[in-house]
């Protein structure tokens, strides 16, 4: 339930109150209008809108009102609005306040309004449009909820990305840390694993992003609250305890299980989590730092493949919001890093080792030290003539890492990989890009290199056959004859695959 308080009810306030009442389809939200115009109070009550006859500038009037989530200050007079604004901000420090400047503003009024209100509007039409389009909508209510949740945190916040984070996860974590700082909560952008992709490292280094690399043995006692970005469950594609109490979850991926968290925002229509964080920055009235804006725009571009993959109007809108603050020269440097020789070798092995059936190509690249080379190899295979779907996989320590890409309209890679590999590992992703990781427990039982190579050869065949069969049998989940062949080779992992 959201409690909205309207202080003052001139021309703008009357329209706002009536439309807010009209838009509350659920009947769960609460609305109260306070105005010194008795005729307006009677008219609003006739429309079943709660209204109180009182002076909105009298501090004693709001003294007994329970904490509202949103306050609209909407008298026609600037002096009345300013007095109401000063009292409301002093009384309700965590509320989101939208203030109408009124019709008799002086040069001294504007800075006072800007300092105390989250949003200032100085035209009647703009005021109504802003509230109805920007505050009543679900994302505005989410911003209210996020502010409330952040205000409950007493101590330091850990904003945790998924393992081996991509640009979208990194940018989203940095963005949430900036938002938390705005409400007085100190936080760290944290991740487990490595940032090994050369473009990702370039982004972090060139923008000077402050990240904390955690190891599984690190104590989490320094943190009093936890937020997850670009993934939604602790212990799944991160190395947090599965039973960890999570305060905030912000993601754009469809959940594959119950999502814990005091505040949860899953926007599956958005092409990137960075889009969601950009919306929050805008809702909080914050101008993003250059480094944050550049990272967020890069995160959106990567996750939407430069606005060509699973893109939504929200992604374009976020890009337009960020563009004035982006350092384009740094962005160009991030996008043009030096490609390491090992990555080129991985791509070459994928091309050489590929097995193709119709428009589907699968390739093992053997042992790898950089798992981020796999999606680049999968992209390169997809660029080959006659190929519409690719899977590239490799081995590191006792794990097999898989990366898949598709441009075929009838293929959903996220579901395909889950069908093929969730019983022997962990998989997930989108329709056109997905990943999986499988723990090859049997490798730990031998030091004999010949035996290891023999096992790897069998695993390569299992992975290849499982993928082809999963492609052919969608939407079913059976993997037929290959199930018994492979169960003994793997011990089930718990991390969702990173695309």
From TrEMBL:
Gene3D superfamilies tied to this protein: inorganic pyrophosphatase (n-terminal core), NAD(P)-binding Rossmann-like Domain
A GO term, aspect molecular function: nucleic acid binding
Domain DDH: 158-300
Domain RCK N-terminal: 5-99
InterPro entries recorded: DDH_dom (IPR001667), DHH_sf (IPR038763), DHHA1_dom (IPR003156), NAD(P)-bd_dom_sf (IPR036291), Oligoribo/pAp-PDE_c-di-AMP_PDE (IPR051319), RCK_N (IPR003148)
Domain DHHA1: 359-464
Gene Ontology biological-process entries: potassium ion transport
Name by which UniProt lists this protein: Phosphoesterase RecJ domain-containing protein
């Amino acid at each position: 339930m959201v409690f909205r308080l309207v202080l003052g009810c001139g021309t703008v306030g009357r329209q706002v109150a009536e439309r807010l009442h009209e838009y509350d389809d659920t009947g769960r939200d609460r609305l109260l209008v306070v105005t010194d115009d008795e005729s307006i109070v009677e008219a609003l009550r006739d429309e079943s809108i709660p209204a109180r006859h009182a002076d909105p500038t009298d501090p004693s009037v709001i003294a007994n009102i329970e904490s509202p989530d949103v306050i609209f200050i909407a008298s026609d007079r600037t002096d009345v609005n300013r007095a109401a604004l000063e009292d409301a901000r002093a009384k309700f420090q965590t509320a989101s306040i939208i203030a109408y400047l009124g019709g008799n503003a002086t040069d001294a009024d504007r800075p006072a309004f800007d300092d105390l209100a989250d949003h200032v509007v100085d035209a009647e039409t703009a005021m109504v449009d802003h509230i109805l389009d920007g505050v009543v909508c679900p994302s505005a209510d989410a911003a209210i909820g996020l502010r409330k949740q952040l205000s409950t945190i007493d101590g330091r916040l850990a904003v945790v990305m998924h393992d081996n984070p991509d640009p979208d996860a990194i940018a989203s974590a940095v963005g949430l840390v900036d938002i938390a700082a705005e409400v007085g909560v100190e936080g760290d952008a944290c991740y487990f694993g490595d940032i090994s992709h050369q473009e990702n490292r370039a982004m972090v280094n060139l923008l000077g992003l402050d990240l904390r690399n955690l190891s599984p043995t690190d104590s989490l006692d320094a943190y009093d609250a936890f937020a997850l970005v670009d993934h939604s469950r602790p212990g799944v594609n991160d190395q947090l305890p599965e039973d960890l109490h999570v305060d905030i979850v912000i993601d754009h991926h469809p959940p594959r299980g119950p999502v814990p968290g005091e505040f949860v925002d899953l926007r599956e229509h958005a092409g990137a989590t960075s889009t969601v964080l950009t919306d929050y920055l805008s809702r909080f009235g914050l101008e993003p730092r250059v480094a944050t804006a550049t990272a967020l725009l890069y995160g959106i571009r990567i996750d939407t493949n430069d606005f060509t993959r699973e893109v939504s109007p929200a992604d374009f809108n976020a890009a337009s919001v960020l563009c004035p603050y982006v350092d384009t020269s740094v962005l160009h440097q991030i996008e043009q890093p030096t490609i390491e020789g090992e990555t080129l070798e991985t791509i070459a092995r994928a091309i050489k080792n590929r097995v193709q059936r119709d428009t589907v190509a699968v390739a093992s690249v053997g042992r790898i030290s950089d798992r981020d080379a796999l999606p680049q190899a999968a992209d390169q295979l997809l660029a080959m003539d006659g190929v519409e779907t690719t899977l590239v996989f490799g081995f590191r320590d006792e794990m097999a890492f898989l990366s898949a890409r598709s441009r075929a309209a009838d293929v959903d890679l996220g579901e395909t990989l889950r069908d093929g590999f969730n019983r022997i590992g962990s998989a997930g992703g989108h329709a056109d890009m997905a990943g999986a990781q499988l723990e090859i427990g049997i490798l730990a039982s031998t030091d004999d290199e010949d035996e290891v190579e023999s096992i790897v050869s069998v695993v390569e065949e299992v992975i290849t056959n499982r993928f082809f069969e999963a492609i052919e049998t969608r939407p079913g989940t059976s993997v037929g004859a290959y199930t018994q062949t492979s169960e003994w080779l793997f011990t089930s992992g718990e991390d969702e695959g990173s695309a």
